[in-house]
UniProtKB/TrEMBL annotation:
TM regions (residue ranges): 12-35, 47-68, 342-360
One matching Pfam family: Bestrophin_2
GO cellular component assignments: plasma membrane
Keyword Transport: yes
Lineage: Eukaryota, Fungi, Dikarya, Basidiomycota, Agaricomycotina
Location of this chain's protein in the cell: Cell membrane
Keyword Aminoacyl-tRNA synthetase: no
Name this protein carries in UniProt: UPF0187-domain-containing protein
Length: 480
């Protein structure tokens, strides 16, 4: 409960506007003290208050609405990514055959059905990796070395054809490497090979244990692989310290910074020295595009290839829209002009209130400052909703949802309608004909012999008559 309250507090804009609120409240204290304790009256006409306040209210309302529109667009794009991922997975799993034949005139070995299934499931894992890579890309986390991403892509080619040196690294891996953890360029060491310490029995025991203990550990269900460097956590939120709750204490942190250890000084604070939330830096590489290239490859029939290409194209379009939301801030001139206008209004506010409200001018100014600047900061915060703040979209949950759905799709074999259509539970012609499918087949002659007599058995033309009767029954029963 305490942790939840702390997170909610950090998700407010109090720490973003505390300094400005303190400044304008101090001005109101000065104005009230001078006006009530001396002979001087620091007052202004209230006409400015009414005119400028109305204009600023409309402008701030537009600012907040446009920011929320970006927030809503981000949620829509992630809904589209989930939909397209399901479509891709179903197309790969159902419509790509397991019984392949060699091309005419070719002596190439035909893969076995098991090899085809392994290939299809690997492609579905890449569909899952695509959404996970989009999450890291939007959060400004480059590369693939994360606990929730690397196990899904580690089997992808690392070098250009024929090469085995650092100069031959493909873009996906070249952008992920760094000098701190250099890759061992040795073909005999399978950095992405499966660990020998894991087998099917132990995996089943782990899954059963997770169900009993109700432990939330999504990485437990991913492949266990060997890697030449430590993997980063799937979530890398900024470091939260004591001074994030009390930003005015950051001055002591700045003083102590030269005396801190180098390892500790590398920690990224959640907020700047004045309490402003830090925004992530953009990535240098586009891992989702690299993963999409491998989804385009494989043994695909032309009819299925069109559906796959359309799905991947739609995901690329969603990525472009997400990039637009994340990388297109409000123009600086607009932000600066709006903030200066609010500052002028708040500076003039206590001079217009003091003659009427007297000492109440102080809390009135503080509340108005909190109100105006709070809405302004909220607009700036939600216009990029892909970070780790409580106000941001839960990208991890979106990825977990896609992961669950893709595994659910792969849990079903390619359906054969004859296995489940012709059962006693299926009444295909209801409500006009409430017989089950086997009963209709057993009385097949009722739908094959043509006889136009009014009292005769229905002929083949009566199939349409049956469907029309069903339509009339549904139409009359479902209208209010």
């Amino acid at each position: 409960m305490g942790m939840s309250l702390r997170k909610k507090f950090l998700s407010t804009v109090i720490n973003d506007i505390w300094l400005e609120t303190l400044l304008f409240t101090s001005v109101s204290v000065m104005v009230a003290a001078v006006s009530k304790l001396t002979v001087h009256q620091l007052t202004l006409n209230t006409t400015l208050l009414s005119v400028l306040g109305t204009v600023l209210g409309l402008v701030i309302s537009f600012r907040t609405s446009s920011a929320y529109e970006r927030y809503s667009d981000g949620r829509k794009m992630w809904t589209n990514i989930g939909t397209y991922s399901r479509t891709l997975a179903m197309t790969i799993w159902i419509h790509i055959t397991n019984d392949r034949v060699a091309p005419a005139g070719s002596n190439a070995r035909v893969p076995t059905p098991l090899e085809c299934i392994i290939e299809k499931k690997s492609m579905i894992n890449l569909v899952q990796a695509l959404s996970v890579s989009i999450k890291h890309y939007l959060r400004g986390e480059p590369g693939v070395y994360y606990q929730d991403l690397y196990p899904l892509v580690c089997f992808l080619p690392r070098y250009a054809s024929g090469g085995r040196t650092a100069a031959d690294l493909l873009p996906l891996w070249h952008a992920s490497e760094d000098a701190e953890f250099p890759m061992e360029h040795d073909i005999s060491r399978g950095a992405g090979s499966r660990s020998n310490s894991t087998n099917t029995l132990s995996s089943n025991k782990e899954a059963s244990s997770l169900r009993k203990q109700k432990v939330f550990d999504p990485e437990q269900v991913l492949p266990v692989v060997e890697v030449h460097r430590p993997l980063k956590a799937s979530r890398n939120p900024p470091h939260t310290g004591f001074t994030d709750y009390f930003p005015f204490l950051k001055i002591f942190k700045l003083i102590a910074k030269p005396f801190r250890s180098s390892a500790r000084s590398q920690d990224v604070d959640m907020r700047s020295a004045l309490g402003k939330k830090r925004k992530p830096k953009p990535c240098d590489s586009n891992v989702p595009v690299e993963i999409s290239l491998y989804l385009m490859k494989g043994h695909i029939l032309p009819a299925v290839a069109g559906t796959l290409v359309a799905g991947i194209t739609n995901i690329q379009d969603a990525i472009s829209n997400l990039e637009r939301i994340a990388d297109t801030p409000l123009p600086f001139a607009y932000q600066a002009h709006l903030r200066i206008s609010i500052w002028i209004y708040l500076l003039a506010l206590p001079f217009q209130l003091v003659s009427t409200f007297r000492w109440v001018t102080i809390p009135a100014t503080a509340f108005t400052t909190f109100l105006y600047l709070g809405f302004l900061e909220i607009g700036q915060e939600i216009e990029n909703p892909f970070n780790y703040d409580l106000n941001d979209l839960d990208l991890d949950d979106f990825c977990f949802m896609i992961q669950r759905e893709l595994h659910e799709i792969a849990a079903h074999p390619a359906p054969n309608p004859s296995d489940y259509v012709f059962t006693s539970l299926n009444q295909p012609f209801a409500p006009a004909d409430r017989r089950s499918a086997p009963e209709i087949i057993q009385t097949n002659e009722h739908y094959t012999h043509s006889d136009h007599g009014p009292d005769s058995q229905p002929g083949s033309h009566s199939l349409s008559r049956t469907f029309i009767k069903g339509w009339k029954a549904v139409d009359s029963s479902t209208r209010k």
